Sequence to fold (314 residues):
Amino acid sequence: MRLGFDVGGTKTDAVAVAPDGEIVARLRRPTGWGADAVVGTIADAVVALCADIGHAPSELDSIGIGIPGQVAEGTARISHAVNLGIETLDLGAAVGPLFGVPVRAENDVKAAAVGAFALRRRARAREASGSLAYLNLGTGVAAGIVRDGRLWRGARGTAGEVGHIPVDPRGPRCRCGQRGCIEALAGGGAVAQRWGEPGILPVRDVFDAADAGDPTADGLRRDLAYGVAAAVRILVLTEDAETVVLGGGLTALGDRLLAPLVAELEASAAESTFLRSLHLPERIELLPPGSPAAALGAALIGATAHEQEVLAHG
Fold:
């Protein structure tokens, strides 16, 4: 039995995964702030999940943790998880000894890519083949890439960081210092900042205002669609990803997000025979709302103690 955790800035999603890859238990907990609180959140969830499945923690095979920030490959050492109040933390040393179980960690978006691949393959009863790009549209924009069932991190772990690729030299300034990055156009945080109106769900407010005819909101929505379309094109043109799965908080908009995105892709394809040949709109899928992709991917990654292969049987 393997446990997987998706540690977010406000909540932690946790799953127990049987040897055949089936999720047999799931729970959510508020995420604490700071290293000690994050470790406490994970530890409490381990105990609760084990109670649900009727196993002692010592009987677990592994624990995998998806978490924001940078993760040293093949370890549970994280750094710069600023949304959690963590500068550096070795989750292996902090969590493993509590239960006597091996612990692995991975960046949350990369973990979600692994989980999305596994869920899609399981739903279609396919073997681990082909490639998938998971494009996370949340406060920021980033992607994870799976090639033939294996997570591809790149030489220094930055494969998939499409959010900081400039696509509009006259676009808004990005927090990375460049101008016109995909994230500056399509990241929820950037859209909210440019909108400038208070709200619990500012991107939804932008879409509502655009539907009501507000020209500023309509421009922000068009920029968002342009940025996401650029990310899709980049992922397909550089990786030839068979499928680009869209996930993250902005995908709760569903068809309201998908419609302008498809329209943007179709408009660019109308000007290019080459782009038409890629059939980009047909290669996009939305991750179902509430999907446990990141927690599942973390569980699968956690089971790989000696190599990066993540989906041989998961």
Notes: Confidence is low (pLDDT under 50) at residues 306-314.
